Amino acid sequence: MDLFRHGRSAQIQQESPLAHRMRPRTLDEFVGQEHIVGPGRLLRRAIQADQLSSLIFYGPPGTGKTTLAMVIANSTQSHFITINAVLAGVKQIREAIADARERRDLYNQRTTLFVDEVHRWNKAQQDALLPHVEKGTIILIGATTENPYFEVNKALVSRSRIFQLKPLTQDDLRRIAQQALADPERGYGKLTVDLHPDALDHLVDVANGDARGVLNALELAVETTPPDEKGVVTIDLAVAEESIQRRAVLYDKEGDVHYDTISAFIKSLRGSDPDAALYWMAKMVYAGEDPRFIFRRMAILAGEDVGMADPQAMGVVISCWQAFERIGMPEGRFHLALAANYLATCPKSNSAFAFFDALEAVEKEQETDVPNHLKDGSRDKEGFGHGTGYLYPHAYRDHWIEQQYLPDSLQGKLFYQPSGQGYERKIREEVARRREAQLAAMVEGSGEWRVAGGEIFSTSPVDKVKDAWLQRTISRAGRNLGAQRDKLFELADIQRHHLVLDVNAGSGLLTWEAVRRAPEGGVWALAADVETGEALRQQAERLAGVERPSILIGSINELETLLALRDESDLKFDRILGRNLFNSQFTIHNSQSTIGNLARWLAPSGSRLTLIQSIPRYAQRLYNLVEWPDDALRAKVATAEEAIYHDETDPLVNWDENDLAAALQAAGLDAQLTVEKQTEQRRITAVHLARWFPDGAVYQIKPSYAQRLQAAGVTEEELGQVSRLYRRQMQGSVLSWQTAIAYIWLVNKPQRTANDN
User: Fold this and answer.
1) pLDDT band for position 71 (cuts 50, 70, 90)
2) Distance CA 386, CA 379 (A)
3) Which helix (H) or strand (E) segment is 677 a member of?
4) 3-class SS of residue 310
5) How far from 53 is each of 24, 81, 155, 512, 549, CA to CA, in Å?
6) How many CA atoms lie within 13 A of 278 on its CB side?
7) Tens of pLDDT along 424-479?
8) Domain boundary among 419, 444, 469
C-alpha cells in the first residue's frame, strides 16, 4: 500500500503545475526577499540554527510566504504540520494540538504548525491557538495576504515576529524563470527552449512581482508551443503575449491594498499632483473599484482640503458625479478624470477644520446661555426682553455692524482662519478687518459687549514613569551621551530588518540600541581589544542565541579577515555606526585608507555611514574653571594650555572639524558634517586632579597637564600654586564642562536600473 501511495505521490508531483514543482526547497534556492532572508538576517540565522519562534509572513500573492514555510519544514528537526485556514476548522486545530502534545511528551519533539491564509479564521478559531502558542506546545507560522495588525488576533500578533514580504523585482522574476528552464528534474531542462529576451521581459513585466504568475505564463507558453523540426521550442514575444495578456494588479476591495491605494489617491489630490492622482485612480478603476466610492472620497476632499479656496470645487465634483450616474461606464471615466484633475489643480485650504475646533469648544465649555440680543424675541420679547438690542446688519452700511455673536465665555475665540489660497485669499483681509472692529467694540464699548474674563488653561496627565526617571540620581554626562546616541540613530534611520555594524563598540552605547532597533536584521559589534569584546559578549549572553550581536575583536582594517573567519565575507551592511573612531590607533592624519576601507562594507544602495566624533580642539579649558587671584599667572597658564591643542606632534588633540572634513574628502567620501557645542555637568574628583598633577614617580605614556605647563615655561613654584588653586576650587565640585561633537553621515543613494526609466 505504501509503495502505491509513494508512486501516486510522485505522479501527482510530476503532474502538478510548474509553479508548485519549482517551489524552492532550501534557502539557497530561495529567490528574493533579501531584506528578511539575506545573509546575516535574523530569520535566515534562525532557520539555519533551527531556533524559530512563532512567525507571521505577510505579503501579496506569489512573493514566497508558503515557500518560506516549506523551506523551514525542510530545515527544521521539529514535526511540521500544514493547515489551510480556508479548509480547516477548530476540529483540525484540536487534532494538531493533540499530535503536538503527544510528540512532546513521548519523543521530546517540537511541533511547528503552518497555517496558510491565517486571516481566514474567525476570532474563535484564532483564539483556540493562543494558549498553545503561549505554552510552547506549538510554534505557529502564519501566512496572510492581509495586514495582520487588522486581520489577525492581537494576542497572536503580539506573540509573533511579523515579516513583510514585498513583490519580487524584475531581476528576481528573471532568475526564477531561468531556473525553471534550466532544471531538468522539475522544470524544462530536458527540453530545448529558446526564450527570446523580449518575450521574457514581457512575462516578467506583466507578472508584476508575482513569481507564480511568471511561472504559470511560462508553463502555458512552453506546453502549448510545439517544437520545430530541430526539437526547439521557440517562445517569442507573440507567444508570450498570448500566454499572459493582462497585468495582475494587486487590489482587494476590502483589504489593506484597497485602503492604501485610496489613501495614496487622496494624498496626491491634496498634494496637487494630477499625474499621481490619475495613476492611483486608474489602478482602482482597472482593478474594478466602484466609481461611486471614488466620487464619494473626492466630494469629501472638496470640503475638507479645498473648501473656501475654491468654492466651485464641490459643485464640479457633484456635477461630474451626477453626469456619471446618467451616463455610466465606460464613458463615465471622463467625468472621473475631470473631477480628479480639477481637485488636483485647484488651490487648497483646510480651513473647514475650524468646525471641529468649534465642536471641541462645545465639548469642553460649561453650558452657556445664548446672548440676550440673539435670542428669539417673537414670543417673549415683552416679558423677558429676549432679542432686545439686536442690530439688524442690513440696516447698516455694507450690510454689517459690529456686535457680539459668540457667548460671553468665548469672546475673542477664533475658529475660522482663512488661508492665503485662491478665493479665500480675497476674503481673508475682510474677515480680519471685521474681527478687528468687533474686538475694538468689545474692549471699548458697553452694553452687549461684555467679556466674562478668564483664560483658557491646558494641563497634561501625570507621567509617573517620567517623574520617576527625573528623580533618579544619574549624571549629566550620561544624559548627554544618551542625547548623542539618539541623534545619531535619528540620522541613521535604522529599520527593523537592517544589518548594522558598530565599528567602535566600546561600552556598547550604540550596540545595544542597534539590537533594539533592528530585531529582525542583525548587529555586528567591532571591539578594539579583547577585554572590551569579552565584556560585550558577557552582556550578550542575556539574549537568545539568534538575537545576540556578533562580537568581533580587532581593528577596522582587519574586518575582512574577521568576517571571513565566520564565513560572512559577503556581508554588506545597511548601516555602519561609530563613536569616537579617531583615537591613538586611528588618527585623523592616517584615516584616509582606513575610513575608505570602512565605506566599502556599505550595501550599494540606500545604506548609511553615521559617526559621532568629539572635536578635541574645542575641549574644556581648565584655566576657565577657576577664579584667578593673579592675572599674570592666569595668562601664563592659559597660553600654555592653549598650546596643548596646537601641538603638531600630538594627533589626538591638534585637529578640528575642518581637518575631519578634509580627511573624509581625501578618502573619497561625499559626507555631510555638522558640529554642536554641548555643556554637561561634571563632578571633579581627586582622581581627575591626580591625573592632571601626578606624583613624579607615576609612569605615564603621555605628558601630563602639569608637565605640559612646565614645558611651556610655568615654573615649579607657579605649578604648585596652580595645583593648590585647582584642588581648592575644583575638587568635589560639579562644574559646567564644554565639549563639541561632530555628527557625520553619508548616504548611498538607491541605485537606478534601466527599468526605472
Assistant:
1) confident
2) 9
3) strand 672-683
4) coil
5) 22, 15, 15, 21, 18
6) 11
7) 666 666 666 665 555 555 544 433 343 332 222 223 333 343 333 223 322 333 56
8) 444
User: Could you count the other beta carbons within 10 Å of the beta carbon of residue 193?
Assistant: 19
d(CA 268, CA 350): 15
330 cis-preceded (ω within 30 degrees of 0): yes
Residue 17 CA neighbour count, 13 Å, CB half: 12
C-alpha cell at 674: 555638522
**Residues 740 and 675: beta-carbon distance below 8 Å:** yes
Which one-letter amino acid corresponds to residue 177? A
C-alpha cell at 549: 550581536
Which residue's entry shows cell 506549538?
138
The one-letter amino acid code at 446 reads S
Indicate which CATH number applies to the domain containing 77: 3.40.50.300
Q: What is the CA radius of gyration of the chain?
A: 36
616 contacts 650 by C-beta, under 8 angstroms: no
Average pLDDT score over residue span 599-609: 86
Find the DSSP H helices in 248-288. Answer: 256-270, 274-286
Distance CA 89, CA 151 (A): 17
Domain encompassing residue 317: 256-348
First-to-last C-alpha distance (Å) of the chain: 59
Listing DSSP states for 556-586 in one string gives GGGHHHHHHHTT-TT--BSEEEEE---SSSS
Measuring CA to CA, how many Å separate 653 from each of 195, 484, 585, 643?
A: 65, 21, 14, 10
DSSP symbols for 109-153:
--EEEEEETGGGS-HHHHHHHHHHHHHTS-EEEEEESS-HHHHS-
What is the three-state SS of 38-97?
CCCCHHHHHHHHCCCCCEEEECCCCCCHHHHHHHHHHHCCCEEEEEECCCCCHHHHHHHH
Contact assessment for residue 485 and residue 513, using Cβ atoms and an 8 Å cutoff: yes
* Domain contains 488: no
**Residue 332 belongs to domain with CATH number:** 1.20.272.10
Distance CA 294, CA 317 (A): 11
**Residues 591, 581: Cα–Cα separation, whole Å:** 10
Residue with more model confidence, 589 or 398: 398
d(CA 521, CA 536): 19
Of 332, 348, 364, which residue sits at a domain end? 348
> Average model confidence (pLDDT) for the chain?
78
Whether residues 364 and 431 fall in one domain: yes
Question: Do 406 and 323 lie in a common domain?
Answer: no
- The answer on 319 and 409 residing in a single domain is no
CA dist 639 and 708 (Å) reads 11
DSSP strand pairing (522-527 vs 499-502): parallel
Write the CA distances from 561 to 564, 568, 570, integer angstroms: 5, 10, 12
> What's the average model confidence in pLDDT over 681-689?
83
Dist. CA 206–CA 340, nearest whole Å: 27
CA 704 – CA 722 distance, rounded (Å) = 14
pLDDT in tens, 392-418: 777 667 767 766 767 766 666 666 667
